[in-house]
Write a structure and sequence with these properties.
The protein is mainly alpha-helical and 167 residues long. The protein has eight helices and no strands. The mean pLDDT is 82.
Length: 167
């Protein structure tokens, strides 16, 4: 397929791509940006397209991956969407972190209370907060999964009782 044929085929699929953006967003402008990014990437990486590949499917995959990458980038940046006329809230400092001095004290207080838990509650709770799944904790400790969930629940309740001053 020549470059002109490829560009023509991509241009003919533009309305289909626009419809496909509704799976990701209802915002018209964001959808148009997504279509534009998809077409730009398709034209840029035309040499990666194989003749025996479904062009529409290939474009849909590019669009999906572009949306996911943009979403992840926005999550990492932790920027908020500002709808005000003068973009008043753009780049406002996030005050919900442990970076403040009192946040550091709160963080230490929470973990002091966590470490005061009974050993049978502490181990499953710490494993869960470290990212282990319930079934992984159950296998590691050789206890039923219901017991793991119960111990984590009770650990949370005990910590909440000790931290009533911070609520």
């Amino acid at each position: 397929m020549t470059a002109v044929e490829f560009s023509t085929q991509v241009a003919l699929l533009r309305p289909t791509l626009r419809t496909f953006t509704r799976r990701f967003t209802n915002d018209r402008d964001e959808g148009l940006d997504l279509v534009q990014d998809t077409i730009l990437k398709a034209l840029t990486y035309r040499d990666k397209f194989r003749e025996d590949t479904n062009l529409k499917g290939w474009l849909f995959t590019i669009m999906r991956n572009t949306y996911i990458n943009n979403y992840r980038k926005n999550q990492r940046a932790k920027t908020s969407h500002d709808d005000t006329k003068e973009l008043y809230f753009l780049n406002v400092e996030d005050t919900h972190t442990f970076n403040r001095p009192e946040g550091s004290v709160e963080f230490k207080e929470v973990w002091k209370n966590v470490n005061q838990l009974k050993e049978e509650l502490l181990v499953p709770f710490k494993m869960h907060t470290s990212g282990y799944k319930y079934h992984e904790i159950a296998e590691h400790l050789n206890i039923p999964i219901g017991t793991v969930k119960n111990r984590i629940f009770h650990a949370r309740k005990e910590i909440q009782k000790k931290l009533t001053g911070y609520q």
